[in-house]
C-alpha cells in the first residue's frame, strides 16, 4: 500500500500543480473550501460507516456467514445514508452557502456538491470492507486508478473552462473513487449467500451504537477545518485562504500519505491485538516508531526547504505560505507521533472517549485561530494546528496508558527525540539565517533517512535493498542484499 500511496502523491502533485497555475491562490483556496464542505457533509451523513465497516468485517474473521452479514449490512446502510445526506444538503443549500461561502448565490453549487458527499459515503463503506478483509492489493490498485481518473478529468475541465470548471473539478474525484471502489469490491471473493434481514439487524445496531461516536468525533475534525477556512475567507480574503490551502495541501498530500498507507493494515491489526494488552502496547509502539522513522526525513526536509517546496509544487505566487507551512509541519510531527495512540479508542470501541478527544482538539484549533487571527494573520492557523496536536498527544497518551497500560518503548522514545531535535535545530537556524538553516536541515534530513534505512532494512523490498547496497556502509550487516 505504501507504493500505491507514493504513486498517488505523484498523481496529486500533477493535479495540484496544474490547478495552481490555472487558478492561482484564490482559486486554489476555493477548491479547498468546497472539498472541505463535501467532506464535512459526508462525515455527517456517513455515520462513521468506513470505520465501523472495517471493524465489523475484521471481527467477522473467516466465518462466511458473519462476513456476508457484515458486508451486506454496511453496503445497504451506505446507500441509505448517502441518499439521506444528499437530500438534506440540497434542502439546506441556501443557509449552507451563506454560512460557509458567505453568499447565497452559491446555493446551486452546494446542491451539486451533494453528489460528492453521497459518493464519499459509499466509498468509505466499500474501502472499509476491503480494509476489513485486508485486501491491501485491491485497495492499492483502487486508489491509484481512482486518482488517475479524477486527475485526468479534473485537469481536462480546468484546461477547457478555467475557473468555470472548479465545480466539476471538485466533484470528479469522489465520483471516480466510488465507481472504482465498487468495481473492486464486486470483483472480490464472495463472503457467502445473501444474509436474511434478521442477521443484518445486529450489524445496523452496532453501526448505530458506534456510528454516532465516530460521526461526532470525525465531524469535529472536518468541521473545525471548515470553520478555520471560513474564518480565513471572511476576515482575510480568498488570497490568504489560498496560501493556507497550499500549506495544508503539502501537509496532507505529501506527508499524510505515510499515515494513510499504514492505516490500511494497522487498524484491523490493532483491533485484533486489543484482546491482549501486551500485544496491543507492542503493536502501538512499533507502529509509532516506524511512522516517525519514515516521516522524519520528509518533515525536516520540508521545513528546511519550505519556499522551494511551495514553488515547485504550486507556483511562485504561493511563497507567502512558507512560514505557515513550517508551523504545519511542526504540528504534523506531533500528529504522526500521536496517530498510533489515537487508534486505540477506535479499535477498542470506546466511542465516548473518541468523541471527547476529537471535539477537544477541534475546539482548540478553531479557538486559537479565532483569537490569534487579528494579530498573526494566516499564520494563526498554523500556530493553532500545533496547539491542537499538543493537546491531542497528551490526551491520547493518558487514555492509552489508562485503557491498555501503554508505556513508551525505548525505540519510540529515541526516534521521537531524534526527529524532534532535528526539527528544533533546523527551525532555530532558519530564524538566524535562511541559507544556513536550509543547509543544516537538509543534512539532518539525510542523516534521518540513513537511520530509517538501517533500522527498517529488514522490511524493505529486495529490489530496494540491492540498490541501497551499492552505497558503502549504508546497510547494517546481517542481511546482505539479494
Q: How big is the Rg?
A: 22 Å
Distance N to C terminus: 22 Å
Shape: globular
Sheet of most strands = none
Question: Overall mean pLDDT score?
Answer: 85
Percentage of residues in helical conformation: over 70%
Name the quaternary structure.
Answer: single chain
Keywords:
0% strand; 482 residues; globular
Q: Can you walk through the features of this model?
A:
About 85% of the residues lie in helices and about 0% in strands. It is mainly alpha-helical and about 475 residues long. The longest helix is centred in the N-terminal third of the chain and has 45 residues. The chain is globular and about 70 Å long. The two termini are about 20 Å apart. The C terminus is likely disordered.
Break the fold down into its secondary structure elements and pairings.
Elements: H1 2-46, H2 49-60, H3 64-91, H4 93-101, H5 107-132, H6 136-161, H7 166-187, H8 197-235, H9 238-273, H10 277-304, H11 306-313, H12 322-347, H13 351-376, H14 379-404, H15 410-432, H16 434-456, H17 462-468
Helix pairs in contact: 1-3, 1-5, 1-6, 1-7, 1-8, 1-9, 2-3, 2-5, 2-8, 2-9, 3-5, 3-8, 4-5, 5-7, 6-7, 8-9, 8-13, 9-10, 9-12, 10-12, 10-15, 10-16, 12-14, 12-15, 13-14, 15-16
Can you give me a brief rundown of this structure?
By secondary structure, this protein is mainly alpha-helical. The protein is 85% helix and 0% strand. It contains 17 helices and no strands.
